[in-house]
Amino acid sequence: MSDEIRLTMPRQRPFYGVAHLVLGGVAARLDLTVEHLEELELALDGLLDRRDGAEEVTLSLRLGENGLEAAVGPFGEGLRSELAGEPGDALSIRRLLDAVVDEYTVADRPDGTWVELRKQTAVNGR
Q1: Could you tell me if 57 and 96 are in contact, meaning their C-beta atoms sit under 8 angstroms apart?
Q2: Using one digit for the tens of pLDDT, what is the confidence trace for 20-48?
Q3: How remote is the C-alpha of 125 from its chain's centroid?
Q4: What is the DSSP letter of 1?
Q5: Is the per-residue pLDDT at 126 higher than 80?
Q6: Is the per-residue pLDDT at 11 higher than 60?
Q7: What is the 3-state secondary structure (H, E, C) of 85-110?
Q8: Best CATH choice for the domain 4-120 from the list 3.30.565.10, 3.30.70.100, 3.40.50.2000, 3.50.50.100
Q9: SS3 for 61?
């Protein structure tokens, strides 16, 4: 499926609720469990809290064959190095993403660094 939802908003906490609403709507369409939705919201909030990027941040959601794919950005180079390092003992964005999404990658795009997330929702073809 190639449908994509894109939300661009100011990088300010009062707008996180809008991102949660959009994510919740997509989650309802996929019949995601509350646990999966909460994990995705944690990942999203962890990324939105980053201040090394443009004044606006974009959330892109796409329904994949086996789940939900999201991209968040743009960010500065600081996020890339934090995600590439060892997770360590402290609560970091890397430890958070390792715990709540199935896979994430860092992608270079013309406007900066983006984080692409994948959360598998389909089990045995469902």
Answers
A1: no
A2: 999 999 888 888 889 999 999 999 999 99
A3: 24
A4: -
A5: no
A6: yes
A7: CCCCCCCCHHHHHHHHCCEEEEEEEC
A8: 3.30.565.10
A9: strand
Give residue 124's pLDDT: 40
Which structure tokens are listed for 119? Answer: 């959360």
Residues 6+ apart with CB under 8 A from 74: 53, 54, 57, 58, 109, 111, 112, 113, 114
Q: Alpha-carbon distance 105 to 113, whole Å?
A: 10
- Flag whether the pTM goes above 0.85: yes
Q: Would you state the structure tokens that stand for residue 98, as one six-digit string?
A: 């390792």
Bridge-partner residues for 60, per DSSP? 6, 71
| pLDDT value of position 75 | 92
Q: 46: which 2 tokens?
A: 């962890």
